Amino acid sequence: MAKATTTIKQVLNYQPAHVAWFAVNQVLFNQVAAFYFDVIQAHINVLDHSSKEALTILEQLTHTTKSNPTPVMPLSDMAEDVPAYFRRAAIHAALGCAHAFYAHLEKWRQRKEKARTQGKKFYERPPVPPRSWNKAVTLYQGMWKERTSSSLMIKVWTGTCWSWIKVRITGRALPAGRELGSPQLVQKGKQWWLHTPVEKLFQSPGNIEKQVTTNPGTKICAVDLNINEHIAVCTIQTVEGTILATKFIGGGNEISGFRKCQLGRIARNRSQTGIIAEGEQDNVDLWKKIRQVDEQAAHLISARIVQFARQHEATIVVFEHLGNLRPARGKYSRRGNTKRAYWMKGRIFTYAKYKAYTMGMVTSRVSPRNTSRECACCRSLIARYDTGKPAEGYTPGAPLAFCFQCGMKGNADRNASLVIGQRLRARYHPKEKPQALRRVSKDTGVALSQDAKCEEGPSILLAGHGESNEHGTAQDGVFRMDEHASDIPHQLRFPFEL
Ligand SMILES: [Zn+2]
């Protein structure tokens, strides 16, 4: 069984006086966590134990009881009467931090050692332990009770005593039938929130290799992310290469237009104000707007990709690696816009990955090399051109593709998406022989072509397009994107959904 955790964030309603208590409570939590971080640093072997054992050891070192009257570093020197579950939550926070810190330190040492053996100079600074602590309080069982859909009792430090207070919960409801984790009290701006991790158990989807090689019914959703109007183009393919569905997710121009407009306003504001003070954020509201729209779009698009994959029962979602950011030339707004569109591609992948996982799908990435320049049918280099222009040359970002070798004609982004899916399959079928005849699916209604040009297979194979994608793999699951010289308007060929 596999496990996926999502966090449900809910707004808390409380009396105005409680705000100060929440703050004091969090300060105390961080003081205790920082104290335990020091204890761990003084007893570094603790980290070799499991977290349960480490907890026992740390309590023995710090907690005064009848059987343990004189601990080495008593917690009572710093804070009196800390409830056991508050203390344990703080210990786990400190342990988590310590594990992360020492793992970073170890990696830094390895890099330093490597540089030394290679005779190179090493300038990188070592990681430092946290200087300040600002962790949200985790409420273990015993620190909260009587949770209903609209309220909760929590125990907080008021600065003078421990007190149970009742808070109201509004916002998103907890999904039914899920395992609830320990909630956290989180401050965002002036508002306090309750974050509750929710666990979902599901049948593990199994690794990609196993799925692709053992189950011919496996469906792959291949996604091509762009920075033009069609932000994402997804195709569903079987492991044998039949194309079952295509989806274009648009809206790119709207997002990019909005972003460019805001960046332009920032640039104009800056030219009026002149020099900006160092370390000070200018145009706070405009930046916030841009961030929010980007964030929202990334969530929406990733959700739609995953939705589409699920709808067609795909179990693998494949993207291409991001490749390098090609800086755009032009005004500040244009350069900044391209950069942000590129960042958004990364964010869409990150979000789609976790969203897919909670639905039992696994995500992978393939080499981005020439994905949009290669023909999905025969691997030759394609021409990419704008509507109404002759089918020649390669115009990056242009919507149409044409293959001189096999006559494939279609949408360039869809072609790229097909190539991405093929690369994933080719990774696990590296020795499959090129097929002479083209297979065709009835579902897609793609016509079978007996064209001599198509049967002779690839005559132009690209040298080394990606490490895991070898010669002879190109014909794995061939198909035709479209009929020759079809005069069906291009818009009608694919199910445009947006
Ligand atoms: Zn071709």
User: Which stretches of 5+ consecutive residues score pLDDT under 50?
Assistant: 433-498
**Beginning-to-end CA distance, first to last residue:** 36 Å
Give the ligands present: zinc ion
Largest sheet: 8 strands, antiparallel
What sequence of helices (H) and strands (E) makes up the elements? EHHHEEEEEEEHEEEHHEHEEEEHHH
Mean pLDDT: 82
Summing up helix and strand content along with how strands pair, one would put the structural category as: alpha+beta
* Rounded radius of gyration (Å): 28 Å
Overall 3D shape: globular
Please indicate the count of domains: 2
What is the number of helical segments per DSSP (H or I, 4+ residues)?
10
Approximate strand percentage? 15-25%
- What is the tally of beta strands? 16
Which range best describes the helical content: under 10%, 10-25%, 25-40%, 40-55%, 55-70% or over 70%? 25-40%
Organism: Dictyobacter vulcani
Domain Cas12f1-like TNB: 347-420
Keywords: DNA-binding
Protein name: Cas12f1-like TNB domain-containing protein
How would you sum up this structure, described in words?
The protein has helices at 18-42, 51-62, 84-117, 208-214, 252-273, 284-311, 332-358, 412-428, 452-455, 490-493; strands at 2-13, 137-138, 144-145, 151-157, 162-171, 179-180, 184-188, 191-202, 219-225, 232-238, 243-249, 316-320, 362-366, 383-385, 400-402, 409-411. It is of the alpha+beta class and 498 residues long. Strands 1, 2, 3, 4, 5, 6, 7 and 8 form an 8-stranded antiparallel β-sheet that branches. Strand 12, helix 7 and strand 13 (362-366) form a beta-alpha-beta unit. Bound molecules: zinc ion. One of its GO terms (molecular function) is DNA binding. Residues 347-420 form the Cas12f1-like TNB domain.
